[in-house]
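Structure tokens please, single chain.
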Amino acid sequence: MGQEKQYIAVDLGAESGRIMLGTVGGEKLRLQEVRRFANGPVEEDGTLRWDFGKLFSEITRGIGEAIKQSDGEISGIGVDSWGVDYGLLDDMGQLIENPYHYRDSRTDGIMEKAFELMDKRDIYEKTGLQFMQFNTIYQLLSMRLANSQVFAKAKKLVFMADLVSYHLCGRAYAEYTLASTSQLLDMSKGQWSEEIFAGLGLPMEIMPEIVKPGTVAGRLKEQVCEELGTGPINIIAVASHDTASAVAAVPSRDRRSDAKENEHSKPCRWAYLSSGTWSLMGVETSEAIINDKSFEHSFTNEGGVDDTIRFLKNIAGLWLLQECRRQWQREGTELPYEELGVMAEKAKPFAAYLDPNDGRFLAPGDMPAKINRYLEQTGQKPLDDKGQMARVILESLALKYRSVMDAIEEITKEKIDLLHIVGGGDKE
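Here you go.
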């Protein structure tokens, strides 16, 4: 293979996961999808959880298949996932319970309780993060306020992608880009905020060390090596937040780091839209933007690769359409995305509008019914045509993207010349 190297990527999304085999060499990257599997919340005693045992089994099976299909030695394995969710380990390093799903209702009303303990603006000044009820900060506070016995037993918190890596190599850590989604990080220091933990009465001692993207976290455990029939492989703390990895892969030659090298150049100002279950739209900056305007528009500052900040807005994304498809499937109608796209194209334009980020759409359930209730409550006509509903969702997302882009230009005082769309949603 010459100078070529092979890597295995574990990419976990809120709807599906996939195992990729990548070959790098000769200024080329070749990607092969080895395995894809469904992912989603499970109900446990009235709560929404992630079935971590099943998830890890799918992952190790996919890694095993990738090893068999590889042509020689695997140079490393990296894992990314969605943000905010975590597992809790006991004093023996064992996962105490299945991790909660961020759409679980336990955080309903918790933000307001947090603001009674600590001023909302003070939280934003430290963390620079968009206020969303499922952020890790509110998940932890909900456990403390409920006097959770599991929380009392916890010795270490590990975020989802890093929890997979922990089970692969045995090292508990928090990769910086993933940790930055928690609203527990002081974005000016890149470390856990003592003020946040003290202000909300949360135990900072359970938080793991923070490592930078690209860190070799450890080696594949002997037990896992035996199960997969392979020798030791490096486990690499890639940009563990899926959006951070997606943004790092944006094919732009005019990155801000390049612009610093040539002060006389005028780089193309580009933005990104990472589209999937969630949509994240933003720009790369060299430092966090925390001011009156970013607070007013509720923008977030998350860690990026190469000491960058992802200044962005979280938007509900394709979640509404995904939930509609699931409901229609339960009712006996199977509609692939391609067919829905054709149906939406034939439907009437701008028949209605909805705010994708409205709290009524956060939890899973009968999404078409939720949308129609929203339309009725906002003085609009309910929809009974599936293609029309799909079009309304997609048009509403497009309009939301436009308003977010306007806000980005207002806050950064820069005109965006180019928008890169990345992520699984660009195919749907």
